[in-house]
Design goal:
It contains 24 helices and 10 strands. The protein is an alpha/beta fold.
């Protein structure tokens, strides 16, 4: 345990979900069926192989024990079943007559030799199954896990940006990568192992009852307090599991945040602060994992003590019966394999069954703890699948207009939460062949306004139209195919320059080069040693900020859509490059509608229309000259403030 002390009650806030009832657990298991169903043939084959192996193991162990101890070593005659298994004739079979002659030395050797090769063949078959099944199971489980992970990521992709604006990406990563993996253990942990343990328990109780009903009753009596302990410990283990997974999720989020802002950390010399926070989160994760295992250990220890007491009592009774050579309870049935009375072979066989039972019971208890953790993981994984996308297609979506003449926002209002509106009753129209500049202070809602055109958000009130068609009536896939946005973040991938420009598109090299030329990116690309085939580092780390910005614009241009949105497209460009880019965009966009979100006055001046946002409203709209002509106008004041700010820089 680390030196850091954690108050369990304070950590409950990490997860607010209640513990799972039996009904909840059953519901979770049933929800895995669609994923398991796809691998059903393989699963049934796997279970069949395990069943064959289990039957072979118990049968061989049970029969071999009597053959070795009573037949080969003591010379007792074989039961008919044993003779048939070893392919021996009637000369070796018992007649049931008292004081019948024992097997001769040569016959005992024959039994030994037959047993050796018959059981060797069975052992080889058992070994083959035992070697194959673990690898086979991993192959099956990973295919199931892959299906669930893909579904989870697909659901996250369809959630609106309103959800992603408050969700921690590290938590989503942990749920997809780690929590989803619990489905691979559903079959093993919740079906195979419990079924094996139950079958072993029933088989053991049945066999021991054949020897003596007292042994069977002791097994059943011991099971009652063990079941009570399982019921009592289950909610405690689930609570520890939820806290452990939540704290590990927080740790993943911490790691992701550090890597995503490493430049800020270094620039502010915050390495020690970040390290302290990571150390605290890591200790918390380790402590919660430790407490989970302590809870399972206490359960295992308590049940082990109960079972040990029962085994000691049974061994005491069996030893007394063996000394007195007492007749077994169902001697006629047991006699089929040679245990009509309590002798050394009967004692060892019964002890073997109790050992099998205790081993399986111990494994079942450990598995029970693992099963609770698994169910919590499944609950966290399915949580993502239960999230309903806020933005969906209508039942009969319309096709995107063949020709775009206008885009308009009509009385649009939007807020992330009801207490703080972002946009208020906003109206704006842009015509074909125009460039509209969206300007305003930071946080005025410029990016949100444009994002709603792609339905990354939906307005709380009002509507957005392309021509006279509400964007909510257009299929989302078609809408986003025909509206392109170049984001301010300039996200690039560890791929070639050409692959970054043509991201998610199958286009020609000529199209890639044309888009790069419009974005003024062709200059620096051709100076690279491998040109368009140059491999970029992660997030385009080999490029300057301005170069990354131009590649992002080229990626938007190559999509050749009738509507283009550029978010701060020239913020990192020098004046000369900016002017060339704007001229190219004006020429390229003469039959399109272009929106530019920007603060740069040099970009604003050339726009056909300027919309100034303030406190979520468009306070002024028009071209630069007309807006500047208003001596007390909001736009004129905005330009003057920007000019002063630029001169101070």
């Amino acid at each position: 345990m680390s030196e850091t002390s954690w108050d369990i009650d304070s950590l409950v806030s990490l997860e607010v979900d209640d513990n799972l009832t039996f009904k909840d657990s059953l519901r979770l298991v049933l929800r895995t069926w669609p994923y398991i169903k796809k691998q059903l043939i393989h699963i049934l084959t796997f279970l069949g192989l395990n069943l064959i192996a289990s039957v072979m193991y118990f049968f061989i162990a049970f029969v071999a024990n009597d053959l070795m101890n009573n037949k080969i070593l003591l010379g007792e005659r074989l039961q008919p079943l044993q003779a048939n298994i070893l392919f021996l004739d009637d000369r070796y079979i018992t007649t049931g007559i008292e004081n019948e002659s024992k097997l001769t030395v040569n016959q005992r050797r024959a039994v030994r030799d037959q047993m050796l090769w018959v059981f060797s063949l069975a052992a080889l078959l058992f070994l083959g199954i035992a070697v194959i099944t673990p690898y086979y199971s991993v192959w099956i489980y990973q295919r199931i896990n892959q299906d669930l992970r893909v579904r989870m990521l697909e659901r996250i992709e369809h959630l609106s940006l309103k959800y992603h604006s408050h969700a921690r990406s590290g938590d989503l990563i942990y749920r997809i990568y780690q929590d989803s993996a619990t489905i691979t253990n559903v079959i093993q942990t919740l079906i195979v192992i419990p079924a094996q343990s139950l079958s072993v328990f029933v088989f053991t109780v049945l066999i021991l009852s054949f020897f003596s009903p007292w042994l069977g009753l002791l097994c059943l009596a011991t099971a009652i307090p063990v079941i009570w302990l399982l019921v009592w410990f289950t909610p405690r283990i689930q609570e520890r599991s939820r806290l452990a997974r939540s704290s590990n999720s927080n740790l993943t989020s911490r790691i992701q945040e550090v890597f995503s802002m490493i430049n800020i950390v270094k620039a502010n010399r915050a390495e020690s602060t970040v390290l302290q926070r990571f150390n605290a989160d890591s200790r918390q994760a380790l402590d919660m994992a430790f407490l989970l295992r302590v809870e399972i250990m206490i359960l295992h220890l308590a049940t082990a003590m109960l079972m040990l007491g029962a085994v000691l009592v049974m061994e005491y009774l069996m030893a007394n019966w063996t000394i007195g050579e007492k007749t077994t309870y169902l001697g006629g049935v047991i006699a089929m394999v040679g245990f009509a009375i309590w002798n050394l072979g009967a004692y060892q066989s019964a002890i073997g069954r109790t050992n099998d039972m205790t081993l399986q019971a111990g494994g079942f208890i450990r598995n029970w703890g693992a099963a609770q953790d698994l169910l919590i993981g499944l609950d966290r994984a399915f949580y993502l699948l239960d999230l309903e996308p806020e933005i969906t297609d209508t039942d009969s979506p319309k096709a995107f207009p063949l020709q775009v003449d206008s885009v308009s926002w009509r009385e649009v209002s939007f807020s992330y939460d009801t207490s703080q509106p972002v946009l208020k009753h906003l109206s704006l129209t842009a015509k074909k062949g125009t460039v509209t500049a969206i300007v305003g202070a930071t946080g005025s809602g410029k990016s949100t306004l444009m994002s709603m055109l792609l339905r990354l958000y939906d307005p709380n009130d009002g509507d957005i139209y392309i021509n006279d068609t509400n964007v909510k009536e257009i299929a989302i896939r078609e809408l986003r195919t025909n509206v392109t946005i170049a984001l301010q973040q300039n996200v690039l991938f560890a791929a070639t320059v050409a692959e970054n420009i043509a991201f998610a598109l199958d286009v020609s090299n000529d199209a890639i080069r044309s888009a790069a030329k419009v974005a003024c990116a062709d200059e620096f690309i051709e100076e690279m040693k491998l040109g368009y085939e140059t491999e970029l580092g992660e997030r385009g780390g080999k490029l300057s900020t301005g170069q990354r910005q131009r590649l992002s614009i080229a990626r938007a241009i190559i999509r050749d859509t009738p509507i283009l949105i550029l978010d701060e497209p020239t913020s990192s460009l020098d004046a000369a490059t900016e002017q060339r880019l704007l001229q190219n965009l004006n020429s390229w966009g003469k039959d399109r509608i272009v929106f530019i979100i920007t603060h740069r006055l040099s970009t604003i001046r050339n726009a056909d229309q300027i919309a100034l946002l303030k406190n979520g409203e468009i306070v002024e709209a028009g071209d630069h000259e007309s807006l500047m002509s208003k001596h007390d106008g909001e736009y004129r004041r905005f330009v003057e403030d920007e000019t002063i700010g630029t001169s101070h820089e």
